[in-house]
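Entry 14: structure prediction run for Collagen type VI alpha 2 chain. Input pasted below.
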Amino acid sequence: MTFALLCASADCEKRCGALDIVFVIDSSESVGLTNFTLEKNFVINTINRLGSFSKDPESESGTRVGVVQYSHNGTFQAIRLNDPKIDSLTAFKDAVKRLEWIAGGTWTPSALKYAYDHLIRDSRRAKANVTVVVITDGRFDPRDDDSLLTYLCSDPSVDVSAIGIGDMFDQIEENESLKSIACQRDGRVLGMRRFADLVAEEFIDKIETVLCPEPVIICPDLPCKSEPAVASCVQRPVDVVFMLDGSERMGLENHRRAKEFIENVARRLTLANGPTDERNARLALVQYGSPTEQRVEFPLTHNLTVISDTLANVNYMDSSSALGSAIIHAVNNVRGERKARRNAEVAFVFITDGITSTEQLEEGVTAMRRAEGVPTVIAMGTDTDEEVLRKVSLGDMSAIFRGDDYNILNKPSFFERFVRWIC
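Run finished. Output tokens:
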């Protein structure tokens, strides 16, 4: 078993008092696998912000978190607030990542009742603030009982926020449903156009304020601890598109290390069994330079031999950098390879310092959003363009992996953390 060393000996810690938080997330067919993954990332990124996690579910202090994913009637699945196995933030994250998209109908009112009856009513702590965050992308099944929309409101001690995604937020009838879920409270109905906006830093800031309005900052001495690495995308469809900066700033040796990293990732992940395998991982590599220099070094493939042999023959461009046009090229030339695996999450992994031409950058980011791409950025060194990195990561700063130099790419601690993130 591989272990990654996580040290936080001098880190300050945010404490929010006793919190019981329940996320109710839409797992219906209309959401799609990529957006369902973004919902899970939103949950994880939000909880990362809240500091002290209850190591004992029966403890009177710290944060406990539950999740209900819902689709059609009878398919509700939950991570319970008082689950004895959820004794750390890592255990919670692993449980969230294991949730699988249900892809059925949308029974939102019944899901709210389920959340209260099964996660809150009998397991809440007497001194804890209870908050529910509901995420949905559309109207619920008419066969469901709409009177249950206000089910959580029957307990005035439960604070409810409703997040509506897509055009439903602009429709009066659907907006009224969201207001009912949020108990008609001002500021508790939030809307956004795309699921990718869930993981934007600005939105996480907003939710953090709702969940923990008056944090206390404590700076204890926390010892290092070891955590086991988790499985590598087993039974989960992921299409990973590496975007490799071939500019002169990269340098030949760093370019070589980046290629070595990509090959190690390919060997670490569980690759698909064939082009139509609906599970496991496939990889693609696009190297880019100037606005007219983009090369699909290899398209989405499950073939490790193809990946390894191609990487051995990839020539360093030693050019300028135009990331925007590169993203557009990747979306137009790699996305088509995804037709056989429509439900696969597409993960864009940018290996860049962000110092690039801004021409077409907005268009490129928009193209990635439309392709429902989930970005991750690997940025080495301190000479980086933070605005560009923030933009291509869609504002999710936790999706930016940093290090002093490219030597860190294949060190176990960095490598395993990256694999856990992608998976």
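Notes: The chain has two domains: 13-218, 238-422. Will compare against the previous run tomorrow.
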